[in-house]
Amino acid sequence: MLSGRRYRLELDYSQAELCETFGDICRSVWNTALEQRREYRRRGVWMNYVPQAAELADAKRDFPWLKDAPSHVLQQTLRDLDRACREHGTFKVRWRSKARWSPSFRFPAGNLIMVERTGRKWGRVKLPKLGWVRFRWSRPLGGEIRSATVSRQGRHWFVSFLVEDGTATPGQHAMPNTAVGVDRGVKIAATTSTGDFHDRPYVTEGETKRLRRLQQRLARCERGSNRRRTVLAKINAITGRVRDRRADFCAQTAVGLVVRNAVVVLEDLRTRNMTASAAGTTEQPGRNVKAKAGLNRVILDKGWHMLELALRNAARTTGTAIVLVNPAYTSQTCRACGHVDPKNRESQAAFECTACGHQDHADVNAAKNILNAAGHAVSGRGDLGTGRSEPHGAKPPRGTRGRNPRPLGRGGSQIRPTSRPV
């Protein structure tokens, strides 16, 4: 089984400069190759990794600064772009902005990477063109290295090893007859059908006040100034801690759920669509924009998608099945009698059926409906077994739609970076 191991690097000045250079070159190759792909798509033809890799080799003769980065690192950048375009579409892949994108690059050849432990808290890794680099030995490596990714978060650099740990996913869960439904909410991050509530604050009151002051100071800073960069670094330090706490919460919650349950049922929530802006356009301005923006912030803060990813990752070690069900009417349906009515949910937390009078916590009732939907979702319309069907034309859960991209041939433009990245 492939697993990740992440460590903090201790770079000297020259190594940090080289990492910045590698990141800038990879960013330039990504943006140039993406523009080439988009131009090909506008002509109705297809461009993939193989011709772009060949053109990259030719481009090195005209732009010698491309040789500063290892060849297989640049080729891996093109592979990552090719996968992103196939999965998301050429025009939906984002540019890598110097201001918004944190530098990162991958060494795909695990046989060229050497790791040694030099002490109780320190180790070192030998990377192409970087030489030996020290890192904090915070956990055992535990497997054969397949690749290494170097990335920067704030002012620190990290290395992530992809290792083959020699384990396999169990064929059967240790408790095969257990199942749980999980309702993700804006007030409580995760509520289970057994009545357990999983939530925690990710930012302290003091950090909230300090972050607000820093954002006010940032608004008064001149773009491109040293003061603005200093303020941004302080803001990133706070948001980085919040992000780490959220990831830690999702990982711990996911491990607890998959260890105790052979099946974990979630709603098929498309958080990217749910958190889209409601601002609209100049011709058709949106409605309730401020309320929608506040809801978007809460959804993103609770980490709905991150929890799903953590569950899928943790399920590999226990053999737990992650099931997605149609989310329609799960919060309006009575678990006791199956009556569907928007008035059933009196408030965010209170649920009282208008037909039978059944009372329960609203999130627990929804989690029970989610679990029930996994056992009754046999209709072609995706019925919940409560007399209501999903809206006509709704998309099936993720992972059930096949993708078969159709190659359209080659065009004539080539990868030609305009200048050295700055």
Automatic annotation (TrEMBL):
Residues 1-43 form the Transposase putative helix-turn-helix domain. The keyword Ion transport does not apply. Residues 378-422 are annotated as: Disordered. Keywords: DNA recombination, DNA-binding, Metal-binding, Plasmid, Transposition, Zinc. GO terms for biological process: DNA recombination; transposition. Coiled coil: none annotated. GO terms for molecular function: DNA binding; metal ion binding. Residues 172-276 form the Probable transposase IS891/IS1136/IS1341 domain. Residues 304-370 form the Cas12f1-like TNB domain. The keyword Transport does not apply. PANTHER family: PTHR36172, RESOLVASE-RELATED (PTHR36172:SF1). In the C-terminal section; belongs to the transposase 35 family. NCBIfam families: guided_TnpB. This is Transposase. It comes from Kitasatospora camelliae.
